[in-house]
Amino acid sequence: MYFASVRIITDDVNRLVEFYEKVMGVSAVRPAPVFAELVMPSCTLAIGHSQTVPLFGVDSAVAANNHTVILEFRVHDVEAEYERLKPFVDEWVKEPTTMPWGNRAVLFRDPDGNLVNLFQPVTEEAIKRFSGRG
């Protein structure tokens, strides 16, 4: 099995694409006006308009209603990313903090309220846990 992507359903594809292009530092591929993908070597973030939901099943997803999933990106320098993103992130949930499991993390919400975590392994154990994962 190959994990292909995570998809966010939104009522405003352009707004979310622009936000994640800034966060991830890559340009989105737009095969259709209602769908975009931000492709990185380690993951793909797909963004689909709420108009696409009936293709999967009526009411199978609701835009801007996520309360359980955290999108996580490993970065080289959490502090630098925090400073870089300050101008366009409106809602910070947690300023840079070292978590009990050894990651330095900063959490914020995207324009639809989805939770995003940028983290950097900082303890010896955490660094070891992520060695070899790319």
Task: Report on this structure.
20% of the residues lie in helices and 35% in strands. A four-stranded mixed β-sheet has the order 1-4-3-2, with helices on one face. A four-stranded mixed β-sheet has the order 5-8-7-6. The protein is an alpha/beta fold. It folds into two domains: 1-57, Signal recognition particle alu RNA binding heterodimer, srp9/1, CATH 3.30.720; 66-134, 2,3-Dihydroxybiphenyl 1,2-Dioxygenase, domain 1.
**Count of separate DSSP helical elements:** 3
Any idea of the CATH class of the largest domain?
Answer: Alpha Beta
Q: Using DSSP, what is the number of strands?
A: 8
Structural class: alpha/beta
Broad shape: globular
* CATH homologous superfamily label of the largest domain: 2,3-Dihydroxybiphenyl 1,2-Dioxygenase, domain 1
Major sheet attributes = 4 strands, mixed
- Indicate the CATH architecture of the largest domain: Roll
What CATH calls the topology of the largest domain is 2,3-Dihydroxybiphenyl 1,2-Dioxygenase, domain 1
Q: What share of the residues does DSSP label as strand, in percent?
A: 35-45%
Question: Termini, distance in Å?
Answer: 19 Å
Strand order of the largest sheet: 1-4-3-2
The percent range for helix content is 10-25%
Structural Rg: 16 Å
Q: Say what oligomer this is.
A: single chain
Which stretches are low in confidence, meaning pLDDT under 50 for 5 or more residues running?
Answer: none
Task: Name the helix and strand elements from N-terminus to C-terminus, one letter apiece.
Answer: EHEEEEHEEEH
Mean pLDDT comes to 96
Q: Give the number of domains.
A: 2
